[in-house]
Amino acid sequence: MGCGTQRREHNDGMTTTRTSIATLMAALVLVATPIGAGADPVGVVKESGRTAGHSVRNGALTVGRTVRDFFKHGPRTAKRTWNRNAEHTDDQAHADADRVRHEAHSEE
Asked: How far apart are CA 22 and CA 18, in angstroms?
């Protein structure tokens, strides 16, 4: 490697996470907001922001719990923790998507 050049491979996971969250948010807003249905744009944006916050929080908690269990109990326990937390995150994302859809279709 030359002077001033660095390999960026160590940041690929975080870049993927940020890209995934941004893509999820854009898709939720576009899919959940029907044209001309009288949706409340402020409510949709608010629920979308809440969804993004939950995604970030759940991701951080998953990583933290997995790292903790890896060092305390070993790799098998860490894998089980990761899978359990990933399932919870998936359930939460579906519930958040339902809330965004509901907000987009409400005519209040």
From this structure: 6
* 34 within 8 A of 106, measured Cβ to Cβ: no
Burial-class residue 40 by CB neighbours within 10 Å (0-12, 13-18, 19+). middle
Q: Distance from first CA to last CA of the chain, Å, rounded? A: 59
> Measured between alpha carbons, how far is 105 from 108 in angstroms, rounded to an integer?
9
Query: Over the stretch 43-88, which tens digit does the pLDDT of each residue have?
Result: 778 888 888 888 889 889 999 999 999 999 999 999 999 999 999 9
Displacement of CA 73 from its chain's centroid (Å): 27
Helix, strand, or coil (residue 26): helix
What the block records as the tokens of 59 is: 């991701």
Model confidence at 10, pLDDT cuts 50, 70, 90, reads: low
In whole angstroms, give the CA distance from residue 6 to residue 12: 13
Contact between 28 and 48 under an 8 Å Cβ cutoff? The reply is: yes
Extract the tokens encoding 53. 């916050």
